Amino acid sequence: MTENEDHDHTHDDHGDHAHDDHGHGHADDASDATAVDGGIASHGTGIDTDTATTAPTSSSAVRTTDLRERVQLVGVALVGLLAAAMIGFIALDWLRRYPGAEAFGPLETFYTTTGIDPAAGYLFEQFLIAGAWFDYFLGTELFQYAFMWRNLATGVLIGVVAPLVGTYLVHRQMALIGETLAHTAFAGVAVGLLFIAVTGWEGALLYIALLVSVIGALGVQWLTERTNSFGDVPIAIMLTGSFAVGTLLISWGRGFMSIGIEIEEFLFGSLSVVSASGSRLMAMLTVGVVAVVAVTYKQLLFITFDEQAARVARLNVSAYNTLLIVMTAVVVVGAMQVLGVILVAGMLVIPVAAASQIARSFRETLYLSILFGQLSILGGYTFALSQSLPSGGSIIVVAIAIYLLAIAVSDRTGGTISVH
């Protein structure tokens, strides 16, 4: 990634500060990442997130900042609790089906004797009872059914992980990579449909799409590192090439075999696409992505704002870049169920763009993007169900409305928190 002059200027200022504090030639990745997270000024906006070291602040301003942080933390905590509840529902839905009992008979006895089966069934029914009460108060007939809870759970988890990964992509000017990997996932759907039709395999289609998407992500990274083209050329080639392969495979397959799945549902998103196995896949991907980001937060932050300095600090930049792209591929496949191939990139970018209009630091951008992403999902679901419209388009329209509102209330006249 090539840094511009503003980036170099900002890094130099913080690099000098690190030299003064630590007294050695190169700051380690943790200290540099912390400096980036808390103290990068947006050039041309007059906003410095490290206000405690640059200018005295009044007590009222400090109280306002503290209140702002508390509200954000409470919001993120509530989203976390909601996501945990949805993962719990998906786990109960899985356990009540005696997973693995058909392949290994003694498992069924184990589930019964240990009380896992009756406990899982009882708790699962409590979700449906709560849904029946929701239907009573809302005047609907949806939440008393398990399929609607699976759809809602999948959407809530998408609202967490898509902005989480998208925050890094947007600040690295890699927004197009999400669209590219979505088209790669579409090629994976086409490959999966043909594979299932030929072999009769009864597994979930999304697993094949996930495999193809991850291979495509590794291919993009390989092309980027080993070609002399401009940075977005390999991405554009992979975007058009994968979509072309997908359309050719589907057209060719329809000539000699029946394909029982409507491709339009994967293109534009549909609640009917979300299956029990698809929701379980989304739950596993969410836990994995959140765990990886939590462990590698500072390293990813470091390479996001100063890749060259990260190389000097002897970070394995190539490995972390690959990790970020693979996580993007994973999120795209999971989100494709609800948003569709064409619109999935919107959840990676739009909530982050809205958060960047009002956030004062990278961490605050991360928090706000998750909150805006969750509002987009829940608002989009509400609009889609009330008007009998596709879920994907409804979610993106709500996300854009939040983005426009963020612009309206923002006091910025220049760039966002990104130093690019």
TrEMBL record:
InterPro entries: ABC_BtuC-like, ABC_TroCD
CDD domains (alphabetical): TM_ABC_iron-siderophores_like (cd06550)
Residues annotated as transmembrane: 73-92, 147-169, 181-198, 204-223, 235-261, 281-305, 317-335, 341-359, 366-385, 391-410
UniProt entry tagged with the keyword Cytoplasm: no
Composition skew (Low complexity), residue ranges: 49-61
Subcellular location: Membrane
Bias kind Basic and acidic residues: ranges: 1-29
Keyword Metal-binding: no
Membrane topology, record value: Multi-pass membrane protein
GO cellular component terms, semicolon-separated: ATP-binding cassette (ABC) transporter complex
Biological processes per GO annotation: transmembrane transport
Region named Disordered: 1-61
Family: Belongs to the ABC-3 integral membrane protein family.
Protein name: ABC transporter
Organism of this sequence: Halobiforma nitratireducens JCM 10879
